[in-house]
Each structure stands twice: as C-alpha cells, then as structure tokens.
C-alpha cells in the first residue's frame, strides 16, 4: 500500500521524462548498478535514515535509488539553488513503481531556481522525519545519517546544537553574509518550537559522508577545533573521486556550461583559470582542448610549477586582466576575483565559477554597484546576466557566480559520477554498518575500497587489467588482490 508523503518539486508531470533519463544513466553508471547487485539482497543500509543534500540531478537520482535498493530510507534536497534537474526530482518522487497520482518514491525538496530562503527551508526538510516515524510507530524524528555536498546540512546541525546549548540564536553581525542571516532565521524559528531538536538529531547521527573539497575543508576545521559532533567520511579524497570527478568531470561540464550559456567560440580566445588544483586542471585542459590560449593563476608553488610544466602561462590575474575573454574560478577560496578586476575586463568578457560557493567572485560588490545605480543587471536568459558597468563596458556573469557547470548545464556526466557515488554508497555502508571502526573524526575509505570502485568501472571501458604474478607480488611486497599502493602514494 502506498504511503502518502510530502515533497516539493517543480512539476511531477516531468517524472516520465526524468525516468527515461535515469534509465539511460543507469547504463552509464556500472559502479552503482554493481553495488545494487552485490548488496541488494543483504541490504546493509536497512535501518539507515539518510538526509541527503547534493545536486538533485539525473545521476543523483541513480544514487538515491541505489541507497533505497540497499535498504535505506532517504529524504533529499539539492545543495545549490540552480543545480536541480526538475525532471530528475519529479522521477525520484514518483519512484520506479509509482505514478504521478500515487507517488511511491522518495521525498525530494528541490527545484531549479530556488531562492536562498527556500533553499534553507528545503535543507531543514531533510531533517524532519516525523512522517516516517509515525508510519513506523517509532519515537525518533530525525535522520541517522547525512550525505552531504559542501557541508550545508552538516552546518545546520552544528549551528543548531551550538545555539541550543547557548539557549539563543545570536543577532547577525553587520559583517554576516545575507545567506548566513537566513540560516540564523531558520534556526531561530526552530529554537522557538523546540529547545533540543538539533541536539537530539546530532545524538542519533552515526555520521556524514561528504562529497566535495569545500565540505571536507569545513569538516577538518570542525575536527581541528574539537567541534565535530559525529564521525565523518571524506569521500572527496578517495582517489576515484577527486582525481576523476573533479578533473574529468569538469573537463566535460565546464565547456558544456559555457556552450549552453553563451555558445561563444573558445578557440583563439584568452581563457584564465584561477586555481590549478583538481578542478582547475580539468578546466584548463578542456579550454586548451577547444583551442583557447589558457593562463592559470596559483598561490601554491607546487601547483604553479605543475601548471607551467603542463605548458600553461602562470600569471597574476591583475597583470593580464585586460586580455581575458573567459575568466573561470576553481579555487574553493573567497575573494579571488575582485570588483576592480571585473571592472578591468574586456567588453562582454565571460565570468564563471566552478568552485563550490559563490564568494570566489565579488558578486556582492557588483550588487552594491547596482544598488547605488552605477551598474545594471540585464537577464539574457535564466542564469546568464549581462552586467553594464560604470566603465561603459559589460561583462557576462553565469549562474550569478554559482557553480556554472550545474547552473548552466547538467553537471558532470553519469560515468564519472558513478565513481564518486560508488564511493558515497560504500562510505554510507561503512559508517552506518561499522560505527565501532570510525570514532568521531574525519576518515577516508580504505584503499582497497577505492580500488574496488575503479575495478567496477573497467569492464565498461574494455580495460584488461594485467595480473600480478605471485612472484611479482612477492617482489613488491604486496597482496596480489591489493591494495597496490601505500597510503602516501599520490597518483
Ligand atoms: P584543490 O584544493 O585541489 O584546488 C584548489 C586550488 O586553488 C589549490 O591548488 C589552491 O592552491 C588554489 N588557490 C587557492 N586560492 C587561490 C587564489 N586566490 N588564486 C589562485 N589559486 C588559488 O580543490 P579542487 O578539488 O580543485 O576544488 C576546488 C573547488 O571546486 C572546491 O570548492 C570544490 O568543492 C569545487 N568542486 C566543484 C566541482 C564542480 O562540479 N563544479 C566538482 C568538484 C569540486
């Protein structure tokens, strides 16, 4: 019998279109499908109540349905206001066996083009398990696992607990971002209703599995300050995540976003990439592949030298600002492109960010200019804006400075996300199933599981792995079944 549940998506009528796309994606996600085959019967996630905050795309739909196939209950929100694919969200709510009239899938709270206030309401929704608790006759009312991307869901719990301990939510300081003021409002309303909601949720949480560099960075800071409330699995630093998704994923989805947004020819243009980490490497390679002349900036001498040895000019942004046609930020850092830099760009230069948050580019500075009448923002189409500047020139800003590969395109393709999400599933199984092995702190998956994820993707590409002979294994001092490298090996 179908149980009715609440959800918030753009249009359930898109479910059929979404289901077709999910079906095609499943064929490109051999890792997730192999995990369904391996664990579908034993259901290692039975009893897991997963609150998920990760871009609600077609690939994520395959992840969600894999978690469900392994026994989990799931509630989901997106981790970005522009990244949801409405047809994927609808299909997940309806589920593989449900109908638009009688949805039988998963409660999703996500649509493309949320306001920031709606975004945080949706994030709060994934923590409200009272319907599921009532249906199960249980006393819990929250999740026992988080699956996070960027750390917003984890932040909400930590801030909630902090304010419940203090007995009040502080007034926002003048320096606080508009977004954090919204978070404070959400938590103030929550505290008015319950004095210990987040404390109880935190106590039930077995852990969080975190998808991205920026979210992982936040987790290590919490751990360093002794503030981390539950164990965390750093999925990003599985080799089969950051050395694949961040690099090859962006190599695909950055040009996709540029094309869909502007259709500008990249060949012959000057492209500038801020940051030569994993994402920056993929971005720079893609732009060079299209024939752009690529310049890179770095603060780290090792990455700067890597960029130079890969054949890129390495420069400071301000030294070449007037030459740039396409400016990409990929640092995970704040304040990388200043208002001064923006004012120094060519007429109709494109500015776009692929780092997790929108503070890499001084969007607040641009908005300040608009507020005082010195600049004007014209919508060319959703997620593409021309900013007319006081210099008489304009710039094109994609996705309002937020992840353009997800805002202007549909994010990374299925095959690479199958690697990332196989790590997510294994991390959920580990943290949920073996809590005794993972005390409060930030962990990475054992290398043998990282190798397993890679292994699950070889056959689809026709890869024939060479087998280590017993004599060779002995010579190298490793097990023929792996792990093949020491933990300090960097790939
Ligand atoms: P990373 O740490 O490998 O690379 C970032 C690089 O930026 C580092 O080498 C650092 O030295 C450099 N950097 C920092 N400040 C800088 C500055 N002011 N100027 C120039 N360079 C600077 O991190 P990764 O994995 O490349 O991730 C970067 C960002 O992209 C993160 O926010 C991450 O969460 C996000 N991300 C986005 C994806 C997408 O689909 N758009 C996919 C994966 C990650």
From TrEMBL:
Entry's localization field: Cytoplasm
UniProt entry tagged with the keyword Ubl conjugation: no
Reactions it catalyzes: S-adenosyl-L-homocysteine + H2O = L-homocysteine + adenosine
UniProt-listed GO biological process terms: L-homocysteine biosynthetic process; one-carbon metabolic process; S-adenosylmethionine cycle
GO molecular-function terms, A-Z: adenosylhomocysteinase activity
List of residues binding NAD(+): 212-214, 246, 275-282, 298, 303, 333, 405, 412
Superkingdom, natural source: Bacteria
Enzyme category, top tier: hydrolase
Residue ranges occupied by any S-adenosyl-L-homocysteine hydrolase NAD binding domain in the UniProt entry: 246-411
Primary localisation category: cytoplasm
Cofactors (names): NAD(+)
Pathway: Amino-acid biosynthesis; L-homocysteine biosynthesis; L-homocysteine from S-adenosyl-L-homocysteine: step 1/1
Binding-site positions, substrate: 57, 149, 211, 241, 245
Cofactor note (record): Binds 1 NAD(+) per subunit.
GO cellular component: cytosol
Its EC number(s): 3.13.2.1
Alphabetical keyword list: Cytoplasm, Hydrolase, NAD, One-carbon metabolism
Protein function: May play a key role in the regulation of the intracellular concentration of adenosylhomocysteine.
PANTHER family: ADENOSYLHOMOCYSTEINASE
Protein name in the entry: Adenosylhomocysteinase
Organism: Naasia lichenicola
Lineage summary: Bacteria, Bacillati, Actinomycetota, Actinomycetes, Micrococcales
């Amino acid at each position: 019998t179908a149980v009715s549940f609440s959800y918030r998506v753009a249009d359930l009528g898109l479910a059929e279109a979404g289901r077709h796309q999910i079906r095609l994606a499943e064929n490109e996600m051999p890792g997730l499908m192999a995990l369904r085959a391996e664990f579908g019967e034993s259901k290692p996630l039975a009893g897991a109540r997963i609150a998920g905050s990760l871009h609600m795309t077609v690939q994520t739909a395959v992840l969600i349905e894999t978690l469900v196939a392994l026994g989990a209950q799931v509630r989901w929100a997106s981790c970005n206001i522009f990244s949801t694919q409405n047809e994927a969200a609808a299909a997940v709510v309806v589920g593989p066996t449900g109908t638009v009239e009688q949805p039988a899938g998963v409660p999703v709270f996500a649509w493309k083009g949320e306001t920031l206030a709606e975004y945080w309401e949706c994030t709060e929704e994934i923590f409200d398990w009272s319907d599921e608790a009532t249906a199960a006759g249980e006393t819990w009312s929250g999740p026992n696992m988080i699956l996070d991307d960027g750390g917003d869901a984890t932040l909400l719990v930590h801030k909630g607990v902090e304010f419940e301990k203090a007995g009040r939510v502080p007034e926002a300081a003048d320096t606080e971002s508009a977004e954090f003021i919204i978070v404070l409002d959400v938590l103030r309303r929550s505290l008015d209703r319950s004095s210990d909601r987040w404390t109880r949720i935190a106590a039930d949480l077995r852990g969080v599995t975190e998808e991205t560099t920026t979210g992982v960075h936040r987790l290590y800071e919490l751990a360093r300050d002794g503030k981390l409330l539950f164990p965390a699995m750093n999925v990003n630093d599985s080799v089969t995540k950051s050395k694949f998704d961040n690099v090859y994923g962006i190599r695909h989805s950055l040009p996709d976003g540029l094309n869909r947004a502007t259709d500008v020819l990249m060949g012959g243009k000057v492209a500038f990439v801020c940051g030569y980490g994993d994402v920056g490497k993929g971005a720079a390679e893609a732009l060079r592949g299209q024939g752009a002349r690529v310049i890179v900036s770095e603060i780290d001498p090792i990455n700067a030298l890597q960029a130079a040895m890969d054949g890129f000019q390495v420069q400071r942004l301000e030294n070449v600002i007037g030459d740039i046609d396409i400016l990409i930020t990929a640092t995970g850092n704040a304040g990388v492109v200043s208002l001064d830099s923006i004012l120094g760009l060519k007429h109709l230069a494109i500015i776009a960010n692929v780092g997790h948050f929108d503070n890499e580019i001084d969007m607040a500075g641009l908005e300040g200019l608009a507020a005082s009448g010195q600049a004007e923002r014209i919508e060319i189409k959703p997620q593409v804006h021309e900013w007319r500047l006081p210099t008489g020139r304009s710039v094109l800003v994609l996705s309002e400075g937020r992840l353009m590969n997800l805002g202007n395109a549909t994010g990374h393709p299925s095959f690479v996300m199958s690697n990332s999400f196989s790590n997510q599933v294994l991390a959920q199984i580990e943290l949920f199933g073996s809590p005794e092995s993972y005390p409060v702190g930030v962990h990475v998956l054992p290398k043998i599981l990282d190798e397993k994820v890679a292994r699950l993707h070889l056959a689809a590409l026709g890869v024939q792995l060479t087998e280590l002979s017993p004599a060779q294994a002995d010579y190298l001092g490793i097990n023929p079944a792996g792990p093949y490298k020491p933990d300090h090996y960097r790939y």
